[in-house]
Amino acid sequence: MRSIGKNFSSDNVGPISPAILQAMIRANDGAAPSYGADPWTARLQELVRETFEAPDAEVFAVATGTAANALALSALVPPFGGVYCDAAAHIENDECGAPEFFTGGAKLLTLPSRDGRLSPAALSAHLEASRAIGVHKSKPTAISLTQATEWGTVYSLEQVRAIGAIARHLGLAVHMDGARFANALATLDCSPAAATWRAGIDVLTLGATKNGAMAAEAVIFFQPGRLTDEFARRRKRAGHLWSKARYLSAQLVGYLEDALWLRSAIQSNAMATRLADGLLTMRDVRLLHEVQSNEVFAVLPEATIARLEAAGFVFYRWYLPPGEPVAPGTAAVRLVTGLDTNPADVDALLDAAAG
Amino acid sequence: MRSIGKNFSSDNVGPISPAILQAMIRANDGAAPSYGADPWTARLQELVRETFEAPDAEVFAVATGTAANALALSALVPPFGGVYCDAAAHIENDECGAPEFFTGGAKLLTLPSRDGRLSPAALSAHLEASRAIGVHKSKPTAISLTQATEWGTVYSLEQVRAIGAIARHLGLAVHMDGARFANALATLDCSPAAATWRAGIDVLTLGATKNGAMAAEAVIFFQPGRLTDEFARRRKRAGHLWSKARYLSAQLVGYLEDALWLRSAIQSNAMATRLADGLLTMRDVRLLHEVQSNEVFAVLPEATIARLEAAGFVFYRWYLPPGEPVAPGTAAVRLVTGLDTNPADVDALLDAAAG
Amino acid sequence: MRSIGKNFSSDNVGPISPAILQAMIRANDGAAPSYGADPWTARLQELVRETFEAPDAEVFAVATGTAANALALSALVPPFGGVYCDAAAHIENDECGAPEFFTGGAKLLTLPSRDGRLSPAALSAHLEASRAIGVHKSKPTAISLTQATEWGTVYSLEQVRAIGAIARHLGLAVHMDGARFANALATLDCSPAAATWRAGIDVLTLGATKNGAMAAEAVIFFQPGRLTDEFARRRKRAGHLWSKARYLSAQLVGYLEDALWLRSAIQSNAMATRLADGLLTMRDVRLLHEVQSNEVFAVLPEATIARLEAAGFVFYRWYLPPGEPVAPGTAAVRLVTGLDTNPADVDALLDAAAG
Amino acid sequence: MRSIGKNFSSDNVGPISPAILQAMIRANDGAAPSYGADPWTARLQELVRETFEAPDAEVFAVATGTAANALALSALVPPFGGVYCDAAAHIENDECGAPEFFTGGAKLLTLPSRDGRLSPAALSAHLEASRAIGVHKSKPTAISLTQATEWGTVYSLEQVRAIGAIARHLGLAVHMDGARFANALATLDCSPAAATWRAGIDVLTLGATKNGAMAAEAVIFFQPGRLTDEFARRRKRAGHLWSKARYLSAQLVGYLEDALWLRSAIQSNAMATRLADGLLTMRDVRLLHEVQSNEVFAVLPEATIARLEAAGFVFYRWYLPPGEPVAPGTAAVRLVTGLDTNPADVDALLDAAAG
């Protein structure tokens, strides 16, 4: 297999991890019951419960992050409800209205931030204000955190717990969009349980696609009940229940077994740090945010950007956080590493940038 | 790989066809642009146009038949619209309200039949009546045909053309749910074009999952335009656009290349015919419908059913067509063959049934 | 005010009852708090609780029956749910998909009947069957009864109780579409409580528009709680919360005070009976259904229909119950009386029919 | 009828204008065809065409502004679309998600402003940016202007035309939320045509409820066609088609005849100006916005507010525009006049404020 080499555009351009592909091939063995009554789906359930130390957790696999997020929100929020999220959240900006579609018209209530993290204080203030308004406003019923955030930053456990406490106090549910949860967990260096349900998360979208799977995300309900009963039907009527469900489950089994997910995230995080460290040695380069996962947001001189493009590196120019100034002759870029980004790939980029 | 052997419960219990798995593995080669800008997706487009002799056709791959059908209908029918279908149609009975969800509340207008085929005459009469009623009724805007039907029967080209003509006359769109289109095409023994757009079909859901793919269906618009512009956004907001789209496209490329789809369908159809022919030699057995694809609906003595179950064969007891009598001590069953059902599997079942 | 005279087309062609108009004019007195914080709305709440002997009932006024039904169902049924109703029900045939829209895509599960009444036995059998099917089907979560039915018949208390018992046993909610509830109640000759919550009804759509109001229907929850909390927001986001809510409430206050609703229904029922009795004295006339409210469904000779039309009477030709034969030279008609239909109006029609 | 006197809380607390009530009573005359086939509805159509010099305009009456706005947007915007509006717009803040519900999940794309008016420049820049993004974003398909705005300001004709030109250039539709259109028109002092379709408005929600009607708003399509065909069904399935439609139409006929709408708006605007002028003579009072309609947003000393409250005046404390500072010991209030606010009412408030 070729390395992804010069492509720093996204963590979704890479191939399937060998171990995940092998798990799929192992599942391709004769007949198996359809719609999730197969042994790989049972094994996934077991693995999730072990991994998250959550013996009652229920897991539902789907193929995309947009589906996972929107389905999870639809189980938490009524059509007349509202979901708090950061103004930079994926659910607000990159899902073409999927949350509105799946919830039947609920509203995303966005709060601005510089770094993609909802501030507990701003959230508290907004919730306080909205409680007085009555039926003219969508009813706030959930909070969605992106972990790691769209700016590559990571909520600390204290921050998650503070938001969890606000939610519990007011009876709101908390969803975590963990498209890059493994990358965040590698940085937090704590147990999966501590990073989620012990901090107040009710439902986790556990991403695998950006971290080596073909197309697989797990929606995990930590406290099942009515919600999970409903969820099975919601998934079916959204066309996200695979008849040959084993191939979705097998990906996630391969992902979680032998800690592949964490090993992959540690590798891509390390490459992002190597990249950021290298860039910071250069003149006129600054980072927009601390690198806490596998994304580097940097302001570079246009000349540097031109050199990288000329050398065949692939990446996106990016927008700036609200109110952020940018010096003339410079621009922001996003550089994303994947589990198969090698030190040599990073060093080649740094060399090209240095000119 | 083990044969699916004794499992006649559905064509979704089988494994991935070797050729399709190989196509996926070939696609797993280093970095590739995401969201469909990859070469496998371009190749799929090309293959569909060639296969259907439709140089302007647009194809969109998704992972499930429910998604393919519901998305296709949502592009054809406004939320205040209605879709004619047979009362036995999959979209009416087996998709948990997906068409209603994706269309934003359109109504399925069902007409009863004995064999799963909409009758052009009944359709015409109903349409005539509904034109006078005005805003109190959902506006009929589309017709959906299941080919092969849920009873394993196949619309003749004449029947499809008759419905196409009614639709054209009244300005309705025609959707074909082709979850088992390859099986129908094998029976019709005509070109894919003749079976679809030349007979008046506007949009085809081309199934692959039941015929050897892992999870892949193609929505094909024969006359693109506004509908396909919309469709790309509809697919995205439903969570059905894969970031690593190459793995969806590769399945369908493997499916269509070298006529794998037809070879597979011919094989499973032949096994169904072998099965039906064998059953008909037995006393007290009758078929509910002519076998025209890979499903056999038979009325068997309870003793025969018991022998099959005791011998480890897996299949479903089934309901009867509306108004169909059933003799005491007999019951209906459904027996489905797949592309990896072998003559030996069929003969073993026949032996067990014979007792 | 002119009598509605020769118009037997519907009970929605008549004017506002004088007492209801006076109630509206009394409410038109200077400033009043908006959105239901006015005294007329408080009085309506009180009146409903008294009238239905239901001290905890919550009432929500809206302007149309379609809104009342669809909002009520949306509070009872999740988007992936199903609602049982008779195949002739208004919610199925005359609301242009409003239930599907308001519920976010739930499915109406229709059972056929000759007279518009759901049969407890058929309902039981269908529910039994659907329990086994799982996520591929919309989940049955409510039953909706039309009282009086679309064929002018009335469920007996025993029938309502039998359905209520089935629902309670399986955890389904029961909605009553009472667009003509007053007409049914006049026939049942029992208390409003006996006809509703004591028989197992959870939510009643109490019609007033067809019985003398301008535009007013009351959605009554007999056992409030989460549902009524939600309902206020559902009504607002559907645009059915009037800012000047007093004018909606005043109509219903005028309707319920001094038993106007029952007096009006008794009058129009009596006129329907007079009409039916007169028609039955004529040769070649038969009724399709027993007259139990203010609608007469009759099969008349075409010559009789022609005489009525020539004499300026306004009414609809109607369709026949499923499987009902009709003799050549005859056709079905619907004749509807209103609270301002006079004996002289009826006798004039009978004279014209007699020729 | 009592004056609304001390109530400055909203223009929806007032009674029905005598002329409008009389129009309703005139319509209450015997039988009339239902669902809009009555002469008052025909007269409304005629009046709207004359008033707006738009011979092809189509008008649809509904009872509430939320319904009018949300239905209008649902005709303009697909479920995967986006609607630009000011961040202070009623559709964003006060309709409990009705636009999201009626459109089937479209997204409101808000741009901030100080005074409630969308800036053509900001709109242009945002549209430019969003064109590049593709299927991951809701597709911008409409712009909604509130005229007068939620801050009581009025778009100049130049501003409306500039936005109309942007929309035409990019193929977007323009909706005007005219809940207080008459108040704006009185200030603009131009023809209704000049203020709407000649400036680029495609659909107008013409408010009457806040300006003397009981419950009536008109959705006016200036260029009918497919949209109006659809709209009739959309209105029905939302439960907003009255069976006794004459009473909705009669209100609007009374509203438009003899220029009642403009005379009423001129009166309430004049009272707002009188109020603002009086307040500005007081120390420590400032207006947040120029008074251009019937709303006064003022920052008052807390002592003044307390005196007004003690004297029995009813009004709301209000929030501040984004980034607006407020001196300690002062707070913002909203004071709204209605068509039955008298000079004496205003002067009494000013006297109480002066202390």
Short description:
The structure is a homotetramer of 355-residue chains. By secondary structure, chain A is of the alpha/beta class.
Task: Please specify the SSE layout and strand pairing.
The structure is a homotetramer of 355-residue chains.
Chain A: H1 18-27, H2 39-51, E1 58-62, H3 65-76, E2 81-86, H4 90-93, H5 98-103, E3 107-111, H6 120-130, E4 139-146, H7 157-170, E5 173-178, H8 181-188, H9 192-195, E6 203-207, E7 217-221, H10 226-237, H11 246-256, H12 260-280, E8 286-287, E9 295-301, H13 302-310, E10 316-317, E11 330-336, H14 343-354
Helix pairs in contact in A: 1-11, 2-11, 3-10, 8-12, 12-14, 13-14
Report what the structure shows.
The structure is a homotetramer of 355-residue chains. With 355 residues, chain A is of the alpha/beta class. Chain A has helices at 18-27, 39-51, 65-76, 90-93, 98-103, 120-130, 157-170, 181-188, 192-195, 226-237, 246-256, 260-280, 302-310, 343-354, and strands at 58-62, 81-86, 107-111, 139-146, 173-178, 203-207, 217-221, 286-287, 295-301, 316-317, 330-336. In chain A, the strands form two sheets. Chain A has a seven-stranded mixed beta sheet, with helices on both faces. In chain A, strand 8 and strand 9 (295-301) form a beta hairpin. The longest helix of chain A is centred in the last third of the chain and has 21 residues, at 260-280. Chain A starts with 17 loop residues before the first helix and ends with a helix. Chains A and B meet through helix 3, helix 5 and helix 10 of A and helix 3, helix 5 and helix 10 of B.
